[in-house]
Write a structure and sequence with these properties.
Blueprint: H1 20-58, H2 74-88, H3 91-99, E1 106-114, E2 119-126, H4 129-139, E3 146-154, E4 163-170
Antiparallel strand pairs: 1-2, 2-4, 3-4
Amino acid sequence: MASKLARLELDFSPTRRNAPMGWLLLGIGLIAASVAGVQFRSAHAERLESANSLTAITGKPAGAREGAGPAPDPRATKAAAGVARDLQVPWAEMLAALESVQAKDVALLGVEPSASRHNIRITAETKTLDDMLNYVDALRSDSFPDVSLASHQVEPQTPGNPVRFVVQARWRSQ
């Protein structure tokens, strides 16, 4: 005994599609666009007329500059050159070479590269002096030909008495 379900009629479209308010707003929008177009053409024509009269008076086209303009500030030029030089350094290559060093139990705390001298200053921490020396030896490679231990210090106030050290290395791009 199957009961027959009543058919459900769904109509999502509005019953009145062309409301007078919509036509009115469309008309107002068209009038406003026409007025804006007429004002633009008028302002453009006035600008061209002013540019032509300026050219006739000065003998130079409007927008032409006298010389190359004001001389740039030498400090700003030097700073911009420094930024451009720093951007040309292959930082990703240097960081990849640094990450490839096998360092057991060494935590890098800071990496300070100097683009102008191709030096890098690494601050790290490890548990023992042997781990520190092994890291300095492992750091020597084609990418870091000159590596030196700049300083080291045992941290007695920190649990485990870790060794904090600073390594200076010269790096070169491959």
